[in-house]
Design brief:
Blueprint lengths: L5 H9 L8 E5 L7 H10 L4 E5 L7 E6 L2 E6 L8 E5 L7 E8 L2 E8 L2 E9 L7 H16 L6 E7 L27 H7 L1
Amino acid sequence: MRGLPGPVRARLRTLATTTKIHFANWNIGTLTGRSTELAAILARRKVAVAFLQETRWKANRNRNIGHGYKLIYTGCSGGENGVAVVLAEHFHDSVLEVRRICDRLMVVSLLIEGVVTHLIRSYAPQIGCSDADKTLFWDRLGDVLCGIPLSHDVVLSGDLNAHVGEVQGEYERRLWLRPKKHRGENHSQNLHCS
């Protein structure tokens, strides 16, 4: 068995090594009184980026929560819903932009290994919410996704509050499909957005 030609071997040595990034997704219930505990858990599990929902905080701020983690969050005046992205210390200086679209949707753009990466945190309205709220959320998420250049990377994390059910055809290759008995009311909006 022959090895690779010399020029190819030389090129392989010069390629940058890829970095593993550990992600977490957490329905926190409420973040009040839990931020220090959250930071300790993320540090212990070596999580670089955590996506949170149901923070139930009222403002739009950034905050250091310990162990080198920065919490970027958005909420509403009523203290309902709320989403957040938590970044490990080595990503603090990589933040290019934070867009807080609403209390259910935010985008944190980072420069990771020379590539613009958009971290999208979404939390879709549940079955009990109005159809207008659901439509507005899906329209906003669609606008965010359509506005990202193809040359950029995207990490979409969220609780989309829908089960897609037994759908064949064009959606079959895009989503993990669940049996019809587990299909939620929001399944068609979820499929349309994908």
